[in-house]
From TrEMBL:
The keyword Transmembrane applies. It is a multi-pass membrane protein. This is Major facilitator superfamily (MFS) profile domain-containing protein. Residues 392-403 have a biased composition (Acidic residues). GO terms for cellular component: membrane. It comes from Paramarasmius palmivorus. Residues 379-403 are annotated as: Disordered. GO terms for molecular function: transmembrane transporter activity. Keywords: Membrane, Transmembrane, Transmembrane helix, Transport. Belongs to the major facilitator superfamily. Allantoate permease family. It is found in: Membrane. InterPro entries: MFS, MFS_dom, MFS_trans_sf. The chain crosses the membrane at residues 12-34, 40-59, 71-92, 135-157, 206-228, 248-270, 279-300, 306-326, 338-360.
Amino acid sequence: MKEDLGLYGNELNFFSTYFSIGYAVMLIPSQIIMTHVRPSWWLPGLELIWGILTGLLAMSTKASQIYALRTFIGLCESSAWPGMMTLFMHWYTPTELAKRMGFYHSCQAIGGMMANALQTAMHTTMNGKAGIEGWRWMFIINGIMTVTFALLGFVLLPDYPNKPNPWAFWFSKAHAEAAMERLRRHNRAEPHPVTWASAVRTFKNWIVYFITILYVSTVLASWGYAYFSLFLKSLKNPDGTNVWSVSAINAIPIGGQAIQVAFVWIWAFLSDWLGNRHLLILAQAVIGLIPCIVMSVWDVPLGAKYFSYFISYLCLGTAPLIFAWVSDLIPQDPEQRALVVGVAIALYYAISSWSQVLIWPAKEAPHYRPKREKVEVEAEVGERRNSTQKDDVDDVDVESLRR
């Protein structure tokens, strides 16, 4: 794709930038709309649109076309991950929530593994078929898969316990009643539409600011793993040939994604089992300093560079713990929870829309010496913010958080 479209500058960064802009713009409105419109209509409907747009990426002939499509894909996709995190809070108890969020979160990595495997297969078997390059086949197949699962979503999403999806033929009234009883036992309130009053209440609450800073710092700090493929592509043999083939470059990161899946599950399981969120977030921040330091120094053995990339995948399990913590902190105000999730993730995407091209410019791959130190600072901010605020969080009367 890079060679076919002449992407030799920072276009790869800008693909993420335009996606992030769309994501950030639509995320909070999507969270609000989802409290007024059935999630089983809203979420699959937008997924259907972004599936079609993904397929259209296969027709791109220049970067500007991808910029436009990525912006609209971001607008639609902003509903999915935040919307599902919010839905989980309406169904699961504190001893179950992080595991469910973690499993869903890990599906991103599983999807990445499948995509890399599919890319490898496409390049090997489909490249040039019907006069279409392998990377274009990849977008076509991804688009078909997305549309298929979007259609299933109309009947598989159960909506809310107090207002179940009438199209969900598999979900009975007894299921809904059992879910409501479980949540009442754990001091969870029924969901209601977001109003102006609930928005004011949210922004008067310190939790929205604490969670936003924590989420943004932990996610930005660990972003270097996303450029593993560019590192692999930059490696040369003494004769100037590439160390790794295209198929290998697509396949090697699958190992990192497998590590990510395993540790997202481990962190989430431990969080529910121990009844603790903050210490496990802190542990990931500390581990994340290792690859930041190695990559900042950079003049280290090649094996250390491989190690730093792979170990960075251990630190990608903070998000499920952070949002499970939100549910613990605001059990009686689901409108606040929806807005806190929206604000935190929207600010991250707003920042990443411009920060990625500054911190990780693709044309400087694989080494970003002047920028690595910024990532170390962000990791340290996430660690310190989490550790210094924890005692204050524990001292708060949860019942007062709605006021």
